[in-house]
Q: What sequence folds into this?
């Protein structure tokens, strides 16, 4: 089952069910008006949503044409958005960045930060930039949306709480990272609104692509139409999503609708840009630049600038993107006076 939220003039939008090929949708309003409402009553409402999805897939319901540009983030605003550090190779590559600390490279307990969740971006929302000196970067990640999890949850409880899987662009302003980390409180100004793929997918619909508490699919990143990376989200995972949920619930209850990110997807390799068509590449610019520094003595790849376009998606066996595509263009925002 694939779920999306369409814009309807209200903050939480309208919940819809999308066909597997992402071509059609039907409103889920008679079952749950919003995704948050569906998550709050998941055990009671999911069977009805699944039945409606089956009718749409079988052609018993004609549905309407689905367009990603009409979609919000699946949860336009969430009670909580927590990003984790599932891939050690990402941390190892970016540890040389200004403001990072070797002590933060923890292999026993995952790092977490609490992001802004009051206004999450849709798949085609622009990437605003307020100057060329902020080092605008993208970070392609897998994220899960969960049901309620109690404090001190077991791995079984954490695994059972995973409701939906999606892709995100965890946008970073690299030049502000050092200031944020050095103030002792963590990321704030360096992490503007996170963007989401148009649909979130249930585990049963992913089948064997979801196992070992992780997504086993390459996630492709393109910048201005050129291949930037296609690391496999199931490879090189040091902390899986159950690890991240258990750690997030160590000192608090997690409410239904909490979003957990797995960290920038990263596979170990010694490539630099440009990569070959069968290469692995990178899911963020910072990693590409640190690889260049190690090989050439200096970074060659620029950060994003106005007019650049970023596309993030996952494809399985030549089919349509499983979660749809995040397709964002960098635009100059209004600079406050």
A:
């Amino acid at each position: 089952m694939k779920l999306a939220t369409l814009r309807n003039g209200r903050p939480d939008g309208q919940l819809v069910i999308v066909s597997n090929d992402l071509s059609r949708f039907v409103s889920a309003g008679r079952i749950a008006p919003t995704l948050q409402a569906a998550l709050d009553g998941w055990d009671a409402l999911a069977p009805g949503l699944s039945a409606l999805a089956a009718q749409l897939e079988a052609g018993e319901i004609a549905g309407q044409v689905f367009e990603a540009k009409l979609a919000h983030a699946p949860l336009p605003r969430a009670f909580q958005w927590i990003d984790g550090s599932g891939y050690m190779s990402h941390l190892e590559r970016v540890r040389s960045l200004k403001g990072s600390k070797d002590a933060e490279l923890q292999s026993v307990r995952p790092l977490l930060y609490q992001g802004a969740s009051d206004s999450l971006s849709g798949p085609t929302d622009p990437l605003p930039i307020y100057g060329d000196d902020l080092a605008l970067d993208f970070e392609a990640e897998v994220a899960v949306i969960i049901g309620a999890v109690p404090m001190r949850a077991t791995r079984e409880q954490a695994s059972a709480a995973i409701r939906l899987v999606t892709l995100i662009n965890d946008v970073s302003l690299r030049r502000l990272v050092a200031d944020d980390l050095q103030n002792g409180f963590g990321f704030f100004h360096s992490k503007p609104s996170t963007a989401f793929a148009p649909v979130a997918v249930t585990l049963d619909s992913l089948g064997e692509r979801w196992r070992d508490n992780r997504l086993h699919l390459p996630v492709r990143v393109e910048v201005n139409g050129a291949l930037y990376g296609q690391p496999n989200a199931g490879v090189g995972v040091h902390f899986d999503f159950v690890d991240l949920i258990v750690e997030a619930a160590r000192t608090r209850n997690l409410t239904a609708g909490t979003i957990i990110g797995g960290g920038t997807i990263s596979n170990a390799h010694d490539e630099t840009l440009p990569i070959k068509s069968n290469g692995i590449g990178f899911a963020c610019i910072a990693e590409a630049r640190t690889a260049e520094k190690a090989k050439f003595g200096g970074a060659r790849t620029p950060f994003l600038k106005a007019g650049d376009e970023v596309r993030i998606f996952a494809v399985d066996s030549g089919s349509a993107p499983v979660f749809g595509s995040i397709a964002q263009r960098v635009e100059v925002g209004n600079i406050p006076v």
About this structure: Residues 229 and 281 are 4 Å apart (CA to CA).
